[in-house]
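Work Package 3 (structural annotation) set out to generate three-dimensional models for the target panel prioritized at the project kickoff. During this period the team completed the workflow that converts sequence records into discrete structure tokens, so that structures can be stored uniformly alongside our sequence database. As a representative example, we reproduce one entry of 278 residues exactly as it appears in the project archive.
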Amino acid sequence: MILLLGSSGYVGTEFMRQLDSYVTLKHTDIVDENFLREFIRDNEIEFVINCAGYVGNPNVDACETQREETFDGNVLFPLMVQRACSGLVALGHVSTGCIYNELDPENPVKEYTELDKPNFDFSSGNSSFYSGTKSLAEKLLMENSEDLYIWRLRMPFESVPHKKNLITKLPNYTTVVKAKNSISRLSDFVRCCIESYEKRIPFGIYNVTNGGHVYFPELCRRIDNSIKRKYVTVDEISEMFVVPRSNCILSNSKLLDTGIEMDDVHTAIEKCIRNSHV
């Protein structure tokens, strides 16, 4: 049996749709480490998936003023879950690829791999508080456990409308940054996470993004070319937000080398647009 934490969120809901068998817990139950450890042992849990996290509302800017909640949700909570799992079961933790930032997003020079040190985190001195907490959590989790998957999600999109769906959000923007980015189709992301456990691929960190990248102006025109938009540079759009935003391309080669299959990003987008209810 799989224990799914954070099942009420955007990512957690997709895990519930795809998992054949799982159990969940109320938030009030999973803040207690001893209770969680006993639940894992008493219910013969074989694997724990943590989708819970704090992203801010309406966006990551809110994390700057809600730092205690952000740190608790993105650092302390996953560490508590890891301690509860220790010696009993393996853990799969949903992280983010927004811990890297390309200096020139319009002309990126590399695809970041799992071996690259994050450069959009607390140590870089130039990141959002949200990205800083997610990067710190990865570091601490990897130091404390070997029976661990860290799955990096990036700008999820899907054919079904949702406020966190990139394809839903983009048509509402009249100003769009000129940048190239990796993104993840949510259903692909969740399937690959589940398969990584089912196929028992090596533990570790994985960039779970669709191969290749998108250029936001082109993606916007592809979704709806009738909307009049202003396309601006990263420096220009940064002035519109409280904190800088991550723009980067991630390599998913490590994941593909395990035998897990994932569409390239343009194929995934085409499937979404063709079946879109957005």
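The longest strand covers residues 90-96.
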